[in-house]
Specification:
Elements lengths: L6 H29 L11 H5 L3 H4 L1 H24 L1 H20 L4 H13 L3 H12 L2 H32 L4 H20 L13 H24 L4 H23 L7 H4 L2 H29 L12 H17 L1 H33 L4 H28 L6 H29 L1 E3 L6 E3 L1 H22 L7 H11 L12
Antiparallel strand pairs: 1-2
Helix pairs in contact: 1-7, 1-8, 1-9, 4-5, 4-6, 4-7, 4-10, 4-17, 5-6, 5-7, 5-9, 7-8, 7-17, 8-14, 8-15, 8-16, 10-11, 10-17, 13-14, 13-15, 13-16, 13-17, 13-18, 14-16, 15-16, 15-18, 16-17, 16-19, 17-18
């Protein structure tokens, strides 16, 4: 005698299926936003000719996205806390559409920079998606969903390189941006149709002065750090940007502490678990970017050097692609670690594995497959670490500040990647050799090894800092945050 499923079971099944659809859309959309990081890397050397400008001006095409993302992440997080996450996600996706179209229709550096800024702003989608998926996912999928979406920050950059290299090699360079426009359109439609509007907005107003102050300070520091190698670290322009940015950020902090409804609650940020997690985010972000910069260069160095591996841009991207996939493949591993060990131990393990990847690279750099192996180990550590950071943040902040706090943590990762770019450039340009008279100087093999040692040291220090976070049992971490999440009757079909 057959029996039909009970109404409760059918409702639960529909709820679970809908939650999975939401997770898939948020993950796909976050990956699309993260792809913008490496979209123009394969054509970076050709940009001056393509845009009819100088190399110095063309370099802003890369820097603009970094600046847009850095400013957007904490601001979009705060907007999501105030007005709800779905509207902010939808607007971020629409901004990516506009930015991609501007770039696709551009042949001059000015409009291209504007479009790239908009593409960077759209990266604010990612921290909001991380915050939302923790509320929307059923309990048994929560850690996996957070881990997967958080990992897209690294996966997008790694997978974007071979994809962009292939498109740039076989098609007109504008196709890069037409593809990103199509992806952004799918991302927008998916967000509007599938992602629910959870009724979890919190009372308050956007701190406009705080948002402007943070933007000015961040732009000053990041421009100074990212351009220091080109302008000269002792140049007035470099020092003026960095020092001016730091002064603005100090004044911004003074203002925020006295504001009744700040953009970023610095008292919450100063809590030991949150503060140490954000410091570790800088170091782990440094570690992720260091290998993303150094390994492709080593792969593409001419074999005449004795240590270069003579790969094309596309070949180098393909050798790096498995590292990006490794971050995603480690999502279920990260989820199990979070469930069994908690965020603190999981983050320390991730930083330790990242350091191990660099140690492997120091001794294995004689063949492309060896560097691929080292990158996969390092990327596994990044994937584990990126999964744990949002969990630690969300555990230790009020629900009313969840998206803003995750956005600030994402900003700290971005700061780490910027510093890594500057440090690696200094090392690689200060240890050089000339292969033949009249040819440009190239980094020595020892310079690449030194970069790997620095990356290992940064990750190891990150692991040590994480171990200073007060210990909590995994169950305590989960329970504490869920107590702050809005009641299930806000969206009963989604909250586990």
């Amino acid at each position: 005698m057959s029996s039909s499923p009970s109404p409760d079971a059918a409702t639960a099944s529909r709820s679970s299926a809908r939650a999975v659809a939401v997770i898939v859309v948020l993950g796909f959309s976050s990956l699309c936003a993260a792809l913008m990081q490496s979209l123009v890397i394969p054509i970076q050397s050709e940009l001056p000719e393509l845009l009819g400008t100088t190399a110095s001006n063309a370099s802003w095409v890369v820097t603009a996205t970094l600046l847009g993302g850095a400013v957007a992440m904490p601001v979009t997080g705060r907007l999501a806390d105030l007005y709800g996450k779905k509207p902010v996600l939808a607007v971020s996706a629409a901004i990516l559409v506009v930015g991609s179209l501007v770039c696709a229709l551009s042949d001059a550096v000015g409009p291209m920079i504007v479009g790239r800024v908009l593409q960077g702003v759209a990266m604010g989608y990612i921290p909001v998606a991380i915050s939302m998926v923790r509320e929307a996912a059923p309990e048994h999928l929560r850690n996996t969903a957070v881990a997967g979406i958080s990992a897209t920050l690294g996966v997008g950059g790694a997978l974007g390189l071979p994809l962009a290299a292939w498109i740039a090699q076989d098609f007109d360079w504008h196709v890069l941006f037409w593809v990103s426009a199509v992806l952004a359109a799918v991302m927008t439609i998916g967000t509007l149709v599938v992602v629910p509007h959870l009724r979890n907005a919190h009372p308050g107003r956007l701190d406009v002065v705080g948002a402007l102050g943070l933007a000015v300070g961040l732009v000053g520091v990041l421009v100074g750090v990212s351009k220091g190698n080109d302008w000269g670290w002792g140049a007035a322009s470099t020092l003026g940007m960095i020092v001016g940015g730091v002064v603005v950020l100090l004044l911004w902090g003074w203002y925020e502490l006295r504001h009744h409804d700040p953009l970023v609650d610095l008292r919450t940020t100063a809590r030991r678990p949150v503060l140490l997690t954000n410091v570790a985010a800088v170091l782990i972000g440094f570690g992720m970017m260091a290998q993303s910069i150094v390994v492709p260069q080593l792969l593409q160095m001419p074999t005449a050097t004795g240590y270069g591996l003579g790969q094309t841009i596309l070949q180098a991207g393909l050798w790096m692609a498995p590292a990006g996939l490794m971050m995603m493949l480690f999502t279920p591993v990260s989820s199990r670690l979070l469930t069994r060990l908690g965020g603190r131990t999981t983050l320390a393990i991730g930083a330790g594995v990242l350091a191990l990847g660099y140690v492997v690279a120091v001794f294995l750099m004689d063949a492309p497959w060896q560097l691929m192996l080292a990158s996969c180990v390092a990327s596994a550590g990044v994937g584990i670490g990126y999964a744990a950071m949002p969990t630690l943040i969300l555990t230790n902040v009020p629900a009313a500040e969840s998206a803003a706090s995750v956005g600030l943590n994402s900003l700290m990762r971005s700061m780490g990647t910027t510093v890594a770019g500057a440090v690696m450039a200094i090392v690689l340009t200060s240890h050089t050799t000339v292969l033949a008279p009249g040819t440009p100087a190239v980094p020595t093999g020892g310079a690449f090894q030194l970069c790997f040692v620095i990356g290992a040291a940064a990750a190891a220090v990150g692991a040590a800092i994480v171990l200073c976070i007060p210990r909590q049992r995994a169950g305590q971490e989960e329970g504490r945050h869920l107590a702050a999440v809005p009641d299930a009757d806000d969206e009963p079909a989604l909250v586990g």
